[in-house]
Please model this.
Amino acid sequence: MKTAHPNNQRGIRALLGMVLAIVTIWMVVLPAAAKLPTVRNHLEFLESHRVNAAAMFYTELEPRD
Model:
């Protein structure tokens, strides 16, 4: 059986590292950020006004000062 070329192994490791980073951000960092008071207040505001944050476009938002 042939072994993978060293460049291919490095590429596979890089890909796995990127996937691990994305999963960590998605499963750890973002849920932790949602618990911060500022973010939680904003999410509650959106929910109270029945705004689907996933459907918002930046062009639809009021400009911030």
Observations:
- Residues 28-65 form one domain.
- DSSP finds two helices and no strands in the chain.
- The first helix runs from residue 6 to 34.
